[in-house]
Design a protein that fits this description.
mainly alpha, 42 residues, single chain, rod-shaped
């Protein structure tokens, strides 16, 4: 049972890290869109 808890804990933290990466990618993607919107088109 202890081994199962360790594996589930590991899976939880890997999923948390993956979610953080996806959130950061979405944030920087949106930031890029906002920066492009502010620049005047020539």
């Amino acid at each position: 049972m202890h081994y199962l808890a360790s594996i589930l804990e590991w899976i939880f933290f890997v999923g948390l890290g993956g979610s953080l990466v996806v959130a950061l990618m979405a944030f920087f993607g949106d930031l890029e869109v906002f920066i492009e919107k502010d620049q005047p088109h020539s």
